[in-house]
Every structure is written in C-alpha cells, then in structure tokens.
Specification:
The protein has one helix spanning 10-39; strands at residues 42-52, 55-60, 63-68, 71-76, 79-84, 94-106, 109-118. It is α+β, with helices and mostly antiparallel strands. It is elongated. The termini are far apart. Mean pLDDT is 80; it is low at 33-40.
Length: 120
C-alpha cells in the first residue's frame, strides 16, 4: 500500500498566508518608528513662505530658512517632483504652505533643513 503525505491542517495555510506577513509588517513598522523617533527624523509643518524670484524664505517656529533655485522634493496634486522649483512658489507668493523639515547631524552639530514643499 503506497504511503500518502498527510494534508496539513487548514489553520496552517491561514497562518502562512496572512498572520506571518502581518506580523512582519508590524515588527518593521515598530522598528522604523523607534529609529525615526530617536533620530528626530522628519516632520511636516505649516510655514510662512514668501518668494522673491527663485529664493524663498520659509519661517517655522521663529527660524527662517532660505531656499534658493531648487527644492529637493515637492508635491503637486499628489505627484512627487524632485530637484526643481515648485509651481506654487511663484515670484511674489506670500502665504502658508506645509513644508517637510529634516534634522541631520554633521560632526555632532544638528542641522535642520527644508527638504520638501507640499503645493497641494
């Protein structure tokens, strides 16, 4: 009589297909959150922005940042743009826009920069 391979229980298939990947995603999210929270990471914040030509002054919490010629990243109608000048920063613009600030540490000194603008 030939031997047959036993059929695994139905719950094992559910665990392999759903529970294990979900657990991995939760662990990855928690690890990313912990690392991002400890290093300062990035944060979107509303900023007072005024533009003169292709130079923008971005004021956040009493600190003014200058952005010249190129913005590393920006959103326009949900589309991501890189290394160019945002359409919403037209010459003469003055208003409030969400900006993404990033903290970077260089040789023990913390540097905060504007890395993105959300044009809406």
């Amino acid at each position: 009589m030939p031997m047959s391979t036993p059929t695994p229980p139905a719950w094992r298939s559910v665990v392999q297909r759903f529970v294990i990947p979900l657990g991995a995603m939760v662990i990855a999210f928690a690890a990313g959150w912990m690392v991002g929270g400890r290093t300062g990471g990035t944060s979107w914040t509303d900023a007072a922005v005024s533009v003169d030509g292709t130079r923008a002054s971005v004021k956040v919490d009493g600190t003014t940042f200058q952005v010249d010629q190129v913005v590393p990243g920006w959103l326009d109608d949900g589309r991501w743009q890189e290394n160019s000048w945002p359409t919403c920063l037209a010459d003469g613009f003055s208003g409030t826009l969400p900006v993404l600030l990033s903290d970077t540490t260089v040789d023990g000194t913390s540097i905060k920069t504007v890395v993105a603008v959300n044009c809406g």
